[in-house]
Amino acid sequence: MLEPFVSSIDFSSGKLRDYDNKLDRKLSSMLGMFADKDIFDQMLAKEDSMVYEVFEKEVPEQSGQLAHAVTVIHPGKVGNEYFMTKGHFHVKENNAEIYLGIKGNGGIIMQNKEGQSSYYPIEPGTVAYVAPYWAHRTVNTGNVAFSFLAIYPADAGHDYGSIEQIGFPKLVVEQNSHPELVDNPKFTR
Hints:
- By secondary structure, this protein is mainly beta.
- The chain has helices spanning 37-46, 161-166, and strands at residues 9-10, 15-16, 21-26, 50-57, 66-73, 77-78, 81-82, 97-103, 106-111, 117-122, 127-130, 135-140, 146-153, 170-175, 178-183.
- It has one domain: Jelly Rolls (Sandwich), CATH 2.60.120.
- It has two helices and 15 strands.
- The strands form five sheets. Strands 3-4-5-13-8-11 form a six-stranded antiparallel β-sheet, with no helix packed on it. It has a three-stranded antiparallel β-sheet with strand order 10-9-12, with no helix packed on it.
- The longest helix has 10 residues, at 37-46.
């Protein structure tokens, strides 16, 4: 049986202090995620930049357990498309998730399997609710690292494959020095 515990967030760095697992997502692990393949290839040829990191506190992947992690998305763009997470549905599609903005500015784009989408800006203190059956992806729309706390059922699972195949219906890009939502030309239903 798991004993109660605490963990802490370093608000100056936006990272989880006492994490158990760390996931690094560099540009090379984001193949096919960005709309402009030519610019992506040019950037990757120069440097395999860090796009985002996930700092996770480990709990058993069992029903009833709540996992939490802090994601830090670095500032940057591929063309005019902001650095982002891969995005995923939950394997257990009826599971929800909560995000809490910690540092920086970004946003969350969500979609259901019918292609309905929504976008919400996130700043420190913003709480975003990811409803069951909705895929979700976060983007850094600022010039500094954007971090947020995610709390989710430990056995929810992550289905990245569906997003790799169909994409998101909308992209978050910089237009006129501001984030804008535009149609994704690569989106398929």
